[in-house]
Design brief:
By secondary structure, this protein is of the alpha/beta class. It is 43% helix and 18% strand. Helix 4 packs across helix 5.
Length: 215
């Protein structure tokens, strides 16, 4: 058995995935080539994450033709000049962080008659160096996305500060999700996915814990 499959199965056991019907594990395959990814695909895993548009196009265009059930998640910062290409290759975007970006996604997906599932990125720690919508402003932001731009916003995403207060941030995200009556939460990575599950995450973005360390 390939190490990626055994790693995925270990994570499934750790969080007892059978008890979480709506929980998806996104295998973050950035920097790993198709040789490393194919064992997981052949095993039946369908959710994969990339954080660069060009890398995703180069790697996944052929794979997605052969395996049409693959769901590809854009988890990195998305520049507006790359939206046209992102809309074509991705099924989910986890990093909607401005009205400008939301407008561009609406424009480009209308052109190709596609309806991506979107997450609003929340700057949950109010960090000046990080992208994301302020928690106090997210309700209005989502209203604009849904009512004016007709976007399919399904949930919230965050990358919490690295300050040992992860539980506090994930707890706030869960409250926000409930307040806004949203279905999905994208939070939890290789180092904190078990905490994220405890606070209702529905999409875990796990890379090194599945694929191993990146070069």
């Amino acid at each position: 058995m390939d190490h990626t499959i055994s790693n995925l199965l270990t994570i499934n056991e750790e969080i007892n995935l059978k008890n979480y019907k709506n929980l998806k594990i996104i295998s973050v395959s950035k920097t790993f080539n198709s040789e490393k990814i194919l064992p997981l695909i052949k095993f039946g895993h369908i959710d994969f994450g990339e954080n660069k548009v060009q890398e995703a196009i180069d790697k996944w265009s052929t794979i997605k033709k052969e395996y049409s059930n693959i769901k590809l998640h854009m988890i990195g910062k998305l520049q507006t000049n790359k939206v046209k290409f992102a809309v074509n290759i991705f099924d989910y975007i986890h990093s909607v962080d401005s009205i400008k970006l939301a407008k561009k996604i609406a424009l480009e997906q209308n052109k190709v008659k596609k309806n991506l599932k979107l997450f609003i990125q929340i700057n949950i720690g109010n960090e000046p160096q990080k992208s994301g919508i302020n928690p106090e402003e997210v309700k209005n932001f989502i209203n604009i996305c849904r009512e004016d731009l007709k976007l399919n916003v399904i949930g919230l995403m965050c990358i919490p500060p690295n300050d040992d207060k992860t539980e506090n941030y994930f707890s706030k995200m869960l409250e926000l999700k409930k307040d806004l009556n949203l279905a999905a939460l994208s939070m939890g990575m290789s180092n904190d996915y078990q905490i994220a599950v405890k606070y209702g995450s529905t999409f875990l973005r796990i890379g090194s814990k599945i694929f191993g360390k990146r070069d």
